[in-house]
Amino acid sequence: MSGHSKWSTIKHKKGKADAKKGKVFTKLARYITVAVREGGADPEYNSNLKNAIEKAKAENMPNDNIERAIKKGSGELEGANFEEITYEGYGPSGVAVFVKCLTDNRNRTASDVRHAFDKFGGNLGATGCVSWMFDRKGLLIVDKDEQMDEDELMLQAIDAGAEDFSAEEEYFEITTAPDDFEAVKEALKNVGYSFSTAEITYLPQNETTLTEEKDIKNMVKLIDALEDSDDVQEVYHNWDMPEDLDI
Questions:
Q1: What pLDDT score was predicted for residue 150?
Q2: What is the rounded average pLDDT for all residues in the chain?
Q3: Alpha-helical regions (H) of the chain
């Protein structure tokens, strides 16, 4: 299996950036609430909820916050009615940007997203203008340690049904078809592996390089501005971001 995705490095950094901004608990609470409303409050029968709870615990979200979000989703507590909306557009020099939101105010979210694109050298596009450039995949990131055997992990991932495996400097990246994600995750978890990222996401088919300093700065600011919104759950893009760039 082969392939290198700097996107996973970007995602790895992005998660840390979210936590620094103090936004992650709000976003995860919405994710949990919507998962309950769409699939019920039992994580054993609701894979989206199970993933949301695991992600929340990985970010050290307090159990009380998780339980409150579940109760809001099940109707035991009053809460806003969130809906999922996606926006698509282009960043500086035509970088494809795909934004996934959960919002209780469509007009506010649209205004915030449009403002971010306009302010930092991009433009919001029509639905479908860039989503075709991304593939929906299961993504598992296993942080490296000295005891880990790369070949053994790769073979176990393949046997479990993974599509691709790559070794990066600090971690291993495993991708799956969306339908195989849970099976691969559980198989690896059952033999002792843990994940710093475990989710179904969107990977770019091709990447765009930015060479102008102004474009690089604006692209970083665009990502930051979008992620700073409580309504924005995920920002996907196909920028070939330098690995030593700290966002």
A1: 93
A2: 89
A3: 6-21, 24-39, 47-58, 63-74, 106-119, 150-160, 181-190, 213-227
